[in-house]
Automatic annotation (TrEMBL):
Alphabetical list of CDD domains matching this protein: YihA_EngB (cd01876)
Presence of the UniProt keyword Cell membrane in the record: no
Similarity section: Belongs to the TRAFAC class TrmE-Era-EngA-EngB-Septin-like GTPase superfamily. EngB GTPase family.
Organism: Marinobacter aromaticivorans
Source taxonomy: Bacteria, Pseudomonadati, Pseudomonadota, Gammaproteobacteria, Pseudomonadales
Job description of the protein: Necessary for normal cell division and for the maintenance of normal septation.
All residue ranges annotated as the EngB-type G domain in the record: 22-197
Entry keyword set: Cell cycle, Cell division, GTP-binding, Magnesium, Metal-binding, Nucleotide-binding, Septation
CC cofactor: Mg(2+)
PANTHER family: ENGB-TYPE G DOMAIN-CONTAINING PROTEIN, MSS1/TRME-RELATED GTP-BINDING PROTEIN
InterPro entries registered for this protein in UniProt: G_ENGB_dom, GTP-bd, GTP-bd_ribosome_bio_YsxC, P-loop_NTPase
Name of the featured protein: Probable GTP-binding protein EngB
NCBIfam families per record: GTPase_YsxC (TIGR03598)
Membrane-spanning residues: none
SUPFAM superfamilies (UniProt xref): P-loop containing nucleoside triphosphate hydrolases (SSF52540)
Length: 197
C-alpha cells in the first residue's frame, strides 16, 4: 500500500451513502479541531486531500479516501464535541457516527486523534471504552506535539500511557505532529499492518 496515491472518493451524510461495506477501512476519530484531517494529509503527503480549518466542525460528513490497493480506504470522521452547532445537529452527527462505528463490518481499526495538550477528554475515553468492548484495534495519535517542548510532550505521553495501561485494544500510542511529520512513518506502518491483515 502506498499512501501518496490516496484519492477522495465520497462524502457520506448517512450510513446508506457510504461505499459498499467490503474490503478494509481505518477511520480517524477525535474531538473537533484535534487535527484529524491534518493527520490524514500528513500520512498521505497530500496537503489538499482532506479539508482542514481553524474553525472547529469543518468535517461534517463521513469522508472516504481510496488507497492504491483495491478496497483499502481511510475515513475522516466528523469531530465530536463541537459546541457551536444546534443541539439537533449534534444529535444527528452522533447518531451517524454511532451507526458507522457499530455497523461497519470492514472497519479494521480506529485512529483516535487527540491534541497532546488536551489528551483523553471524556469523549476520547468513551471511544477507548467502545473499542475495548468491541475488540477493535486502536491507535492513538497524540498530535500537535510541535506545540510543546520535548520534555513536556514526553510527560504527556507517559500520562496517557498510564491512564490507558489496562486497555488491551490500544495497539499503538504515538507522539505525532502533522507540522513536523513526527510519527508519520510509524503510523503508516501500523496502518499497512491493519489494512493488509
Ligand atoms: P474537524 O474537522 O473540525 O473535526 O477538525 P480536525 O480534527 O479535522 O482538525 P484539522 O485537521 O482541521 O486541524 C485543526 C487546526 O489545527 C488547523 O488550524 C490545523 O492547521 C491545526 N493543526 C492540526 N494538526 C497540527 C499539528 O500537528 N501541529 C500544529 N501546530 N497545528 C496543527
Ligand atoms: Mg476535519
Amino acid at each position: 500500500i502506498s499512501f501518496n496515491s490516496a484519492r477522495f472518493m465520497v462524502s457520506a451524510p448517512r450510513l446508506e451513502d457510504c461505499p459498499p461495506d467490503t474490503g478494509a477501512e481505518v477511520a480517524f476519530a477525535g474531538r473537533s479541531n484535534a487535527g484529524k484531517s491534518s493527520a490524514l494529509n500528513a500520512i498521505t503527503a497530500n496537503s489538499k486531500l482532506a479539508r482542514t480549518s481553524k474553525t472547529p466542525g469543518r468535517t461534517r460528513l463521513i469522508n472516504f479516501f481510496s488507497l492504491n490497493r483495491e478496497n483499502a480506504r481511510l475515513v475522516d470522521l466528523p469531530g465530536y464535541g463541537y459546541a457551536k452547532v444546534s443541539r439537533d445537529m449534534k444529535d444527528d452527527w452522533q447518531k451517524h457516527l454511532g451507526h458507522y462505528l457499530n455497523d461497519r463490518r470492514c472497519l479494521r481499526g480506529l485512529v483516535l486523534v487527540m491534541d497532546i495538550r488536551h489528551p483523553l477528554t471524556d469523549f476520547d475515553q468513551m471511544m477507548v471504552e467502545w473499542c475495548e468492548h468491541n475488540k477493535l484495534p486502536l491507535m492513538i495519535l497524540a498530535t500537535k506535539a510541535d506545540k510543546l517542548k520535548f520534555g513536556q510532550a514526553k510527560n504527556s505521553m507517559l500520562d496517557i500511557a498510564r491512564r490507558l495501561e489496562n486497555f488491551t485494544c490500544v495497539q499503538h500510542l504515538l507522539m505525532f505532529s502533522s507540522t513536523s511529520k513526527r510519527g508519520v512513518d510509524e503510523c503508516r506502518a501500523a496502518l499497512i499492518d491493519w489494512l493488509e491483515a
